Amino acid sequence: MTWGATLDVPYFEDFQLQCITSAPPTPGAPFFLAPGWDEAGQTFFTNSGFDPEHKSWPVNNGDGVSLNEYRNPTPTTPDPY
């Protein structure tokens, strides 16, 4: 499950982010915060029709990354996605 959110950060500009979780059969659902991504300058926050295929991460979007790499970026993860 994934959804967009705005995080209120006192004294700084609010962060727009993507929340990612799932319902695994074991206790303790994972929870990730991601920066989201853009396609042709559009984002979830600027275009209500963004990600019409419901990919939920930038797979095959230019550089493309795996879901695991999107949730847990490393120093070699392309930036921006």
Structure in words:
This protein has a 3-stranded antiparallel beta sheet, with no helix packed on it. The chain is globular, with a radius of gyration of 14 Å. The protein starts with a strand and ends in a 10-residue tail after the last helix. The model has no long low-confidence stretch (mean pLDDT 83). It has 81 residues and is mainly beta. A hairpin with a 7-residue loop joins strand 1 (2-7) and strand 2. It contains 1 helix and 3 strands. Helices cover 6% and strands 21% of the residues.
Brief digest:
With 81 residues, the protein is mainly beta.
What labels would you give this structure?
81 residues; mainly beta; 1 helix; 6% helix; globular
Radius of gyration: 14 Å
The count of DSSP E runs of length 2 or more, i.e. the number of strands, is 3
Roughly what is the average pLDDT, rounded to an integer?
83
Percentage of β-strand residues: 15-25%
How does the SSE layout of this entry go?
Elements: E1 2-7, E2 15-21, E3 31-34, H1 67-71
Antiparallel strand pairs: 1-2, 2-3
